[in-house]
Design brief:
Elements lengths: L8 E9 L8 E8 L7 E7 L8 H17 L4 E6 L4 E3 L4 H6 L3 H14 L5 E5 L2 E3 L1 H7 L3 E4 L6 E2 L2 H4 L5 H10 L2 H9 L6 H6 L5 E2 L2 H10 L11 H8 L1 H6 L3 H32 L2
Parallel strand pairs: 3-4, 4-6, 5-7, 6-8, 7-9, 8-10
Antiparallel strand pairs: 1-2, 2-3
Pfam families: ECH_1
GO cellular component, one term: peroxisome
InterPro entries: ClpP/crotonase-like_dom_sf (IPR029045), Enoyl-CoA_hydra/iso (IPR001753)
Amino acid sequence: MATDQKPNMKTLFTLPIAPSGSQPGGTLTCTTPLSPPDSRIYILTLSSPPDNRLTSPLCTALLSALDTLEFSFPSGVVITTSSLPKFFSNGLDLTHALSDPSFLPFSLYPLFRRLLTYPMPTIALLNGHAFAGGLMLAMHMDYRIMNPSRGFACINELDFGVPLKPAMSAIFRAKCTPGIYRQLVLEAHRFGGTEAMEAGIVDLTGGLEDVIKFVGERKLTEKGKTGIYGLMKMEMYRETVEGYLTAEGHEREEERVRRIVEGEKERKEKGRREVKGSKL
């Protein structure tokens, strides 16, 4: 399949991605193919070097772009990709995410919720690595198409010792089989494009030309015309949308996890005391 051919594009709008901490910021550009005419295919291209880390400004830019497309343009299909050849997204800026308590409930989760319930079909074109939060971002879209020869998709939190939040796990439970979920989370397995397609993580391998062909074959530009596409997705992913991706759900789950962590700490302390006592 083609991976490097790009159709001629018309730029619809460009939004800034403000700097945040160590991240220099960048731009989000929305384009549409000049051919076929009136394709109603909207391509959001992230360009926030070096690796499109998910920060509050990047989330804000994506949310603004989604609003602009919904309320100012005809219903169609939204494709999200990257201008950076190596990365779709390298996930969260952990320093930013861990230091700002508002980031998850008021920046990241609203973006995930918006994508999961968006009233048009959404596609992630994974041109390079989609690590951790980058893969989570893609999983909240309806379809994923991945470069067959460059980049890996993985959830590597196990490798750097940061447990997944409940809202982050929820999308993989909803969209992956138990065996693939185990490989992703408990093995931090890196899936190349072909293996990711075989595992059902992505729907197809290829590049932008292949995405546009995929859209045409499935008539995806027509799916939002009746106005119920978003409602169908709200019901389809009800547990994730209502249970995890709200500020209230975040607060409730944070308290639940806190109790679990405290219980584990007490259990380990008790176990150490008992083992030490048995050796006396």
